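PROTOCOL LOG
Step 1. Enter all chains and additional molecules of the complex.
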Amino acid sequence: MGATVVSGMSVSRTVTVGNAPDGLHMRPAMAFAKLARGFRCTVSVRHGDRTADGRSQHDLLMLIALPGDQLELHLEGEDADIAIDPLVAILVGQDD
Amino acid sequence: MSMTRFLVRPALLPSLAAETRDDAIREMVAALAGCGAVEPSQADDIAAAIFRREQLGTTGIGNELAIPHSRHPSVDKLIGTLAVTKRAGGIEFNSHDGEPVYAMVLIISPQDQPRPHLQALDSVVAAFRDGTLMPRLKGCQTADEMWEALTAG
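Step 2. Run joint prediction.
Step 3. Record the structure below.
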């Protein structure tokens, strides 16, 4: 898990995808999107030159994020500071 | 990656006979077995692995699309097939959006190749993303027409 940058109502963090065999596959992508939709803040996830709306499972699948890959999360909104930890937990702690 | 990189052309099904999710999965695996893409003796075990995966959470990702999938030791490269149902009510897949499914992309991947698996998922999502492929596929009567629809875009 990388450093967290908090600025106003935005939070950014660099995260290393967990070591599950399949990376950010369908189930963790679905869990992440569902959780993200429960917050008011916007959630963007960047992998290289691709950026996903964290509320969209489809977007997240298109990141092709494998175990060990680094993702940059950027949250903006009033509950960004609350949302960041559980969202990161899905990415780093995913099981198969 | 394009879906045509891993879809097995003669296994494409323009009009499923199945009326349920499990029967649809069986029919798609049988189509792959029927053209030699998977060992016929492994078909039941592959279908069972896909059923187990569905029990962990639906692969009905919304917008009338499902992507049932599993790893299986009997394949040495990622393969798949695409099926469409002509049933008026579609097929119930317990999808995230609560709507029935009309197209299914079934993917079988080797045990230890996560990158092709994620690339395949990406290619499916990307192909259906703008909403034009689904109605084209629904209008196809043959596997060849489906292939043309997949390569036209």
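Step 4. Note key features.
Chain A touches chain B at residues 21-27, 30, 57-58, 61-62, 64-67 (CB under 8 Å).
The first helix of chain A runs from residue 26 to 37.
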